[in-house]
């Protein structure tokens, strides 16, 4: 199946990622911009092993891959997810805003490649996701993917536990207790 057929049948958008599918990864970083009292959008940045940063056909240096589960459309009724996996140039793997929450999780072995991540996502149908009726669910999706990395033996479970605790603390600190909003656990979408 070529990339266009994959996108149409699964909602998976690979962009220029195939150019870097053999790159070895050093860590997965779950991150979001810190926006008090605002909805956060969560992503994962997968960093290439340092010292091996590739140059793309465009002559720019790339530092990793971004994994972004987002709603396919901004129409409120459309809750289908679209998974964008994109190679990112140096300095663009994470937001450059000063207030960015980042929690890196190191890969235990430096043998996990970009194509291993893509194959794992497709094999487990993680690209087939629908956000909850309120339009939320990106954090749940990202944490579910990291849990799959633990199950594969790629990252340590204790690192994921630590990340979840840090994210919970961030969520609870951002929401006033009197608001009635439940900041944790993450809002779940549905895999289909």
Q: Classify the helix fraction into a percent range.
A: 25-40%
Q: What is the CA-CA span between the terminal residues?
A: 20 Å
Low-confidence segments, given as residue ranges, are none
Major sheet: arrangement of strands: 1-5-4-3-2-6
Average pLDDT, rounded to a whole number, is 85
Q: Report the sheet-strand fraction.
A: 15-25%
Task: Give the quaternary arrangement of the chains.
Answer: single chain
Number of domains: 1
Radius of gyration: 16 Å
What would your notes on this structure say?
The chain is an alpha+beta fold. It has one domain (3-191). It is built from four helices and eight strands. The protein has helices at residues 3-10, 114-123, 138-151, 157-174, and strands spanning 12-13, 25-33, 43-48, 62-71, 81-89, 100-106, 129-130, 190-191. The protein has a six-stranded mixed beta sheet. It has a two-stranded antiparallel ribbon with strand order 7-8. The longest helix is centred in the C-terminal third of the chain and has 18 residues, at 157-174. The model has no long low-confidence stretch (mean pLDDT 85).
Features:
192 residues, alpha+beta, 4 helices, 8 strands, 24% strand, globular, DUF7770, DUF7770 domain-containing protein
Short description:
Helix content is 26%, strand content 24%. With 192 residues, it is α+β, with helices and mostly antiparallel strands.
């Amino acid at each position: 199946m070529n990339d266009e057929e994959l996108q149409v049948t699964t909602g998976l958008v690979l962009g220029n990622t195939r150019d870097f599918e053999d790159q070895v990864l050093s860590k997965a970083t779950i991150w979001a911009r810190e926006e008090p009292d605002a909805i956060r959008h969560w992503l994962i940045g997968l960093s290439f092993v340092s010292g091996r940063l590739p140059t793309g056909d465009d002559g720019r240096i790339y530092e990793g891959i971004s994994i972004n589960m987002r709603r396919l459309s901004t129409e409120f009724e459309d809750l289908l997810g679209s998974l964008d996996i994109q190679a990112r140039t140096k300095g663009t793997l994470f937001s450059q805003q000063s207030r960015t929450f980042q929690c890196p999780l190191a890969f235990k072995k430096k043998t996990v490649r970009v194509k291993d991540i893509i194959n794992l996502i497709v094999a487990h149908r993680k690209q087939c996701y629908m956000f909850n009726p309120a339009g939320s669910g990106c954090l749940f999706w990202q944490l579910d993917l990291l849990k799959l990395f633990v199950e594969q033996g790629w990252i340590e479970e204790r690192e994921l536990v630590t990340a979840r605790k840090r994210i919970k603390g961030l969520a609870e600190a951002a929401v006033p207790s009197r608001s009635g909003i439940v900041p944790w656990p993450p809002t779940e979408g549905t895999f289909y």
